[in-house]
Amino acid sequence: MGKEEFDHIEEKEQSSFLQRIVEKDLEEGVYSREVCTRFPPEPNGYLHIGSAYAINISYNIAKKFGGKFNLRFDDTNPLKEDKEYVEAIIEDMKWAGFDPGDRIFYGSDYFQQLYDYALQLIEKGKAYVCDLTPEEIRSYRGTLTETGKNSPYRDRSVEENLDLFNRMKAGEFNNGEKVLRAKIDMQSPNINLRDPIIYRILHEDHYRQGNQWCIYPMYDYAHPLQDAIEGVTHSMCSIEFKDHRPLYNWTLEELELTEPPKQREFGRMNLTGVVTSKRFLRELVAEGYVDGWDDPRLPTLRGMRRRGYTPESIKHFLGEIGISKDESTVDVSMLEHSVREDLRDRAPSMMAVMNPLKVVIENYPQDENEFLEVQNHPKDPSMGTRQITFSREVYIEREDFMENPVKGFKRFAPEHEVRLRGAYFIKLVKVVKDEQGEIKELRCTYDPETKSGSGFTGRKPKATIHWVDGKNCKSAEARLYEKLIEDEELLKDKTLSWDKRINTDSLKILKDIKIEKALGEAKKEEKFQFIRQGFYTVDNKHTTEEKLIFNRIVPLKDSWKKGKK
């Protein structure tokens, strides 16, 4: 896929309502600093396609206006976060083409500043220490149809609140014994403004700060302040944060921060048959239903990389779907279409037989073999040619032969002469079966005058089929992937175990496929088009010197494009 096409897609993607917001702010001189956006992942899991969608928006807005893009880890919860996820997120972003460079920040590095801001809110009478239990706080908060009621601790004096908050920081109280709450409006129709918790006690070591802190800020409080500290101008969030925007603005206004950042929301993007909930993904990984966060059936960037998706195809897909104000669901076939279109031009065409059936060519010399020259790509001569060997024994696909062909069958059969791709015509002489009556091998003859490229213009074969040389081929394993969740309604039924939700055909393993000798030297993550089979890549996790594993990236059939027609 050419650079011009990707540039066009990127431009189309950014011609959005978010771009118009930024353009308007620049025209009105809202900020004296340059445009700055950010992506704030919590390091408690791996990035997935939904993450890439969000990153792509903020990253390209910054790029479009010559601004800055920050990767900031929202690491304010020591119970879930880990350095493993931090390193994985950075690596996956770089792989996907969203390199933050040296603009990598950590929310936990601002703990002292966030604490000082909390003191300011207390001194203004805008925050108080509350002794209600978590259950009582929920009860006092009210519902969507009933307003909340004030905490009995809401009118504590500034002095008492300062004393208690400092003692919370000093570790004098147990987890859950006290919290710091913003004093806003318990009658507000927006539940997020009903005196939200902004600090809680957690006697837990932090992966980055150690045991320095035992009180930790809540995300809704930390988020706007972290943006302000870093000089972010436009804080792009998914649509579920829209109702949190008033709290975002309240925090910045009460602390009287100049040129405060703006939060603006975009619709979440969902894919059919794909699980993007971090909680669900963690369950699948922790309970062993999948092969780790990089399982090729998962929508994690690590999983898509292992499956063989390219960064270019992912970006192309994100550009094609654009940016919506509302939550949307996209057919996963659109993503597969982008992958297929990208690989069609770059992946060399090779021959691999997935379900081998031996063919013995009786009139070919017993100990002889020859070299044949074939193209590396059927439509791109610039990719050159390679030599393959041909000998008395070859393997073909079992499904390419039918002893009693049904009407319309156009491949190899007793009365059907076929060409072996890049080689010769063959005819059937005899079908050899085992004791159970299963076909064991085929005995055939070949016509030496029909060598491919020799200019032969005689009879026309019934079909051309792929094959591999029996004497010089290699054995490998192939893994074929389908949707992990076939019936999305099952995701909504929380009473079902994952055994009942997962598509039992989501992974099919072929233990002994036969491949060209050259494919035996393939490197991890190298990609190929297996003729008539699909696009494949060498598995980057379980492939060893002794065992070569190919993952099917996508089949050749483009169901999305076909459906459009």
TrEMBL record:
It comes from Isachenkonia alkalipeptolytica. This is Glutamine--tRNA ligase. The keyword Ligase applies. GO terms for cellular component: cytosol. It comes from the Bacteria. NCBIfam families: glnS, PRK14703.1. Keywords: Aminoacyl-tRNA synthetase, ATP-binding, Cytoplasm, Ligase, Nucleotide-binding, Protein biosynthesis. The keyword Glycosyltransferase does not apply. GO terms for biological process: glutaminyl-tRNA aminoacylation. Belongs to the class-I aminoacyl-tRNA synthetase family. GO terms for molecular function: ATP binding; glutamine-tRNA ligase activity.
